[in-house]
């Protein structure tokens, strides 16, 4: 029974919908004692998970029970913030007589960081460089659970939920076909002219500025944040790495606020961003310090909240991680006795204060959920939108496909995920993506 259900999840192309996109069929092939649902949604302005927990509570509990059976877990915990009052009420109605409980979190950032969430919910400390399974926990995203339920029912992943917020006439949370072009998605929030605007793909803390709006959304897209091109979040993100390094070398005053506010440092990790910034001055002899960047979660606290000099430790860490990974350098040996810092509780960042610091207070508005089906002019479904190898196309240019039809598969003996047509139509292009243009009267639009 377990292998059959895992097979359905694999066939449906389910991946982690709220993070890097790890294939869910592989994740659920492990055993664990505790399932933790990441309902914290700590990125400012994003509204997807809190609304799904409110309107899809029954399916979420159903999916949790399936996941518990697959993994052998004896308990499940839904971690969500006290301010998500409607979601709490909806979930509580489904919980009697079930080995599932709610854990109410404070409104701080980054409550949704996987290792922070595990500690808040269970009191267990995930070892530096490890994953929650090391402490008998598995963390799973809200929308991923709904996709598991769909997979068991034979429904592949064809759509994703995302919030469109910021400098838009109508902030909104939508369910859109995977591969919808960003510009088309923005139009649904009332953004017809993007002159003078930039778009962050993801949340304002960890998202990336898009160079081109002719980009598609993917299975992991949870937000599009529209901001004026001169907004502080945009000007910092578009700095070249050369300028990031130059400013770091010349302006870092070694105040160590970046370290004292770092969520991973506060969990006892050997990560001190101020030392990494100092090591940029003399790289030779400081290789071990620079290697600690590999433990960074890139949450952005150091860059967007802590630094008084407007520097970018997160960006430095991100580049170092990529370069070290390329040459096969591994993270340093974790501390033998990893201890939670005594100052941690007082270093939790209130989200309202964070929003103000980011210059986003005027954009902190409701983004109501719409379940409407939207017509799109085309979809561009990337072959690589998950952890692992790119999917392999099994369709041809000119072929007609129906919504939900398998169009790309996992390479043999590789980590990856299947892809399905998110709309019905004609395949017009195959490269790094599969482009589908709808036919008049196509099913599923």
Question: What does this entry look like structurally?
Answer:
There is one protein chain. It contains 17 helices and 19 strands. With 445 residues, the protein is an alpha/beta fold. The chain folds into 4 domains: 2-152, NADH-ubiquinone oxidoreductase 51kDa subunit (Rossmann fold, 3-Layer(aba) Sandwich); 159-231 and 359-374, Ubiquitin-like (UB roll) (Roll); 253-348, no CATH class; 376-445, OB fold (Dihydrolipoamide Acetyltransferase, E2P), CATH 2.40.50. The strands form 5 sheets. Strands 9-8-10-6-7-12 form a 6-stranded mixed β-sheet. The protein has a 4-stranded parallel β-sheet with strand order 3-2-1-5, sandwiched between helices. A 4-stranded antiparallel β-sheet has the order 13-19-18-15, with no helix packed on it. Helix 3 (48-55) runs parallel beside helix 5, helix 4 (57-71) crosses helix 7 (142-152) and helix 13 (273-279) crosses helix 16 (313-326). It is globular, with a radius of gyration of 22 Å. It starts with a helix and ends in an 8-residue tail after the last strand.
Which features characterize this protein?
alpha/beta, Rossmann fold, Ubiquitin-like (UB roll), 6-stranded mixed beta sheet, 4-stranded parallel beta sheet, 19 strands, 18% strand, globular
Tally of separate domains: 4
> CATH superfamily of the largest domain, please?
NADH-ubiquinone oxidoreductase 51kDa subunit
Low-confidence stretches: none
Reported CATH architecture of the largest domain: 3-Layer(aba) Sandwich
Helix content: 25-40%
Question: Looking at CATH, which topology of the largest domain would you report?
Answer: Rossmann fold
Q: Helix tally?
A: 17
Largest sheet: 6 strands, mixed
Sum up the overall morphology in one term.
Answer: globular
Strand arrangement, largest sheet? 9-8-10-6-7-12
Tell me the Rg in angstroms. 22 Å
Structure summary, number of beta strands: 19
Strand content: 15-25%
Separation of the first and last Cα atoms: 34 Å
CATH class of the largest domain: Alpha Beta
Oligomeric assembly: single chain
Q: From the helix content, strand content and strand pairing, which structural class follows?
A: alpha/beta
Mean pLDDT score, rounded?
A: 94
């Amino acid at each position: 029974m377990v292998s059959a259900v895992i097979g359905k999840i694999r066939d449906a192309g389910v991946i982690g919908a709220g993070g890097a996109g790890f294939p869910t069929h592989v994740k659920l092939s492990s055993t664990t004692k505790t399932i933790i649902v990441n309902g914290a949604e700590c990125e400012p302005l994003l509204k997807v998970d809190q609304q799904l927990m409110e309107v899809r509570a029954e399916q979420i509990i159903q999916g949790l029970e399936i996941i518990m059976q697959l993994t052998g877990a004896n308990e499940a915990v839904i971690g969500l913030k006290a301010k998500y009052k409607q979601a709490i009420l909806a979930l509580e109605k489904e919980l009697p007589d079930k080995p599932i409980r709610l854990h109410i979190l404070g409104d701080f950032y980054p409550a949704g960081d996987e290792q922070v969430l595990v500690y808040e919910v269970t009191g267990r400390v995930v070892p530096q460089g490890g994953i929650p399974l090391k402490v008998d926990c598995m963390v799973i995203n809200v929308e991923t659970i709904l996709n598991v339920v769909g997979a068991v029912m034979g429904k592949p992943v064809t759509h994703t939920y995302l919030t469109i917020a910021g400098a838009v006439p109508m902030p909104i949370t939508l369910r859109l076909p995977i591969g919808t072009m960003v510009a088309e998605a923005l139009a649904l929030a009332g953004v017809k002219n993007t002159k003078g605007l930039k778009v962050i793909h993801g949340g304002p803390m960890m998202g990336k500025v898009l160079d081109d709006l002719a980009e598609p959304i993917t299975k992991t897209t949870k937000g599009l944040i529209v901001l004026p091109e001169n907004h502080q979040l945009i000007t910092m993100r578009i700095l070249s790495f050369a300028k990031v390094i130059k400013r770091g070398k010349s302006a870092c005053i070694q105040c160590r606020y970046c370290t004292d506010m770092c969520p991973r440092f506060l969990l006892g990790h050997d990560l001190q961003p101020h030392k990494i910034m100092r090591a940029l001055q003399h790289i030779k002899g400081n290789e071990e310090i620079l290697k600690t960047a590999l433990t960074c979660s890139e949450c952005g606290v150091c860059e967007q909240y802590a630094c008084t000099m407007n520097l970018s430790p997160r960006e430095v860490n991100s580049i170092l991680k990529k370069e070290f990974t390329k040459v096969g350098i591994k993270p340093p040996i974790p501390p033998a006795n990893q201890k939670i810092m005594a100052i941690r509780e007082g270093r939790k960042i209130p989200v309202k204060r964070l929003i103000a610091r980011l210059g986003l207070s005027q954009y902190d508005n409701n983004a109501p959920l719409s379940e409407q089906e939207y017509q799109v002019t085309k979809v561009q479904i990337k072959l690589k939108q998950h952890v692992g190898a790119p999917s392999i196309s099994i369709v041809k240019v000119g072929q007609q496909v129906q919504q939900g039809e398998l169009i790309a598969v996992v390479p043999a003996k590789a980590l990856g995920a299947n892809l399905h047509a998110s709309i019905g139509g004609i395949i017009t292009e195959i490269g790094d993506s599969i482009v589908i243009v709808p036919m008049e009267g196509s099913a599923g639009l």
